[in-house]
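Re: [help] complex structure
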Amino acid sequence: MRLNLRIWRQAGPEDKGRLVAYRVDDADEDMSFLELLDVLNEKLVLDGDEPVAFDHDCREGICGACSMVINGQPHGPQKATTTCQLHLRHFRDGESITIEPFRAAAFPVVKDLVVDRGALDRIVASGGYISAPTGAAPEAHATPVPKANADRAFTAAACIGCGACVAACPNGSASLFVGAKITHLGELPQGQPERSDRVVRMVETHDAEGFGGCTNTGECTVACPKEIPLDVISQLNRDYLHATTGGRRTA
Amino acid sequence: MHWTFTGGGPHPVGMVTLGERPATRVRHTPRPSSVQLKIVMAVSGALALLYLVAHMIGNLKIFLGADAINTYAAWLRTVGEPALPAETLLWIVRAVLTVAIVAHIVSAVILTRRAHRARPIKYAHRPPVKGSYAARTMRWGGVIIVLFVIYHLLDLTTGTLNPNGVSGDVHANVVADFAPHRWYVTLFYAIAVVAVGFHVRHGLWSGLQTLGRSSAAAQNTLKGVALVVAVALTVGFLSVPFAVLTGLVR
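Output below.
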C-alpha cells in the first residue's frame, strides 16, 4: 500500500522544526506503524538523508517508549494500542498521515519525534514509590488484600508511563499518570505509610515540571493505551484533599 | 531515608519506622497547586450553582401572577426581620456569591494560563476526540456568562437598562424586558442561559470528580445527574421569556 506521510522534523531542541512530506510506496498492511518508519528510514539512509528519529524499545506494547501523535491522536486511532502495536491495516491505501511528537512544555523535543519524558520520572522519584527494607522477602500471604482493592491497584498499575495522557490533554496535564500511581500504591497496604506525603509531593512536582491542571475532559483516558480509568484522578483529588486538610501530614 | 528496626524477637513480622525525608525542592513550585485551584473551582462553583437553583425556582413564581413574584421579591428584602435589619440576609448572600464568583474566575484564569504554558506549540492536526462540547466551551462559555450577568444586574436588579425599571415591580419589569420587539434582549438571555446549561453540565460533574466523589461505578450516574440538573435549570430559566413572548405571562 501507498501512504503519504507528513512528519515533524526538528534537528534539535533549539531548532524550530517543521512538517515534511514523505511518500512510502512499498508499505504493507501487516506492518506495524514503527516498521513503516523503519522502511522510510532505510530509504532515507540509502538516499543519504537524515533518518527520522523516534523512540521505541520493546515493540510489544509494554514499555511505553514509543511516543508519537498520529493524525492528532497519541499512539494513533486504534483504541488501547501503543504505536508499536498499531498496524497499517487500520489505514487506507493512499491515506495522508500526519505524525507529530507529543506536545507539552514538560516534554521538550530532543529530535524529530523524540521527546524527553524525564519529567514523569521526576514525578515518580518525588513520591511514586514505597519504602521497603531490604533483606529476605516477606511471606507473600502475610498481608491480606481484599480482591476489589487488588483489582483496582492492578488496573492503575497497568500504566506504562508513556505520556499519551499528557499529549492528549488540552491542558497538558499529567493528572491521569499521577492518579494512576496514587491509586496503584494507595489501594495496597504497602502504600499506606507514605500515602499523604506521596500525593502532596507528586502534585508539587507535577506542577513544578510545568504540566497544566486537569479539567476533566476525559481525553487522557481515551488516548491511554492501557485504558487507565478517569476515576484515578478523582482518587488523586480525594487523597490530596485528605492529606492537606487532616493536619496529620508527614513531611 | 533511614530505618529504625523495632521488630525481631519471637515474632517473624517486624515493624519499621519511616524516617523524616528531607525536602528536595529543586525548582519553583507554583502556588496554589493545580489541585488546590481545582478545589476552589469546585466549591465556588457549587455555591454559584445553589444560588442558580434558588434563583430559577424563584423565577417560576411569575406563573402564579404578578402579586406572587412581587411579594416574593419584597420578602427577599425583609426575610430575617425583625431579628436582622432589612436586606441583611440579601446582602450576605450577595457578598458570599461575589466572593465565590471572583474566586472562581481568578482560579480559572490561573489554570488557563498554566494550561497555555503547558502546551506552547499546538498540534498541526488534532481533532477533538472525547471531550464533550460542554467541556470544550467552559472558558468562553464562562466569559459569555460574566458579560450577561453584568447586563442582567443592570437590567433587572438596578433597573438601569430596563424599559420599565420600577424597583419592586418585578412582574412589569420582566414583561417589558422580554417584549417581542426587544427580541435581541431575549436572544442574549437565551444564549446566556444555554451557556449556563453547558457550563453546569460539565461543571457539576467535574466538581464532583474534583472533590473526590467520583468512582468508576458512579461516573455515569454523576454525569446523568449533571445533565438532568443542567437541563432543568435551562428549561426553568428559559420558560420565563418564552411565556412572555407567547403571551402566557402578560
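The CA atoms of residues 26 and 33 of chain B lie 16 Å apart.
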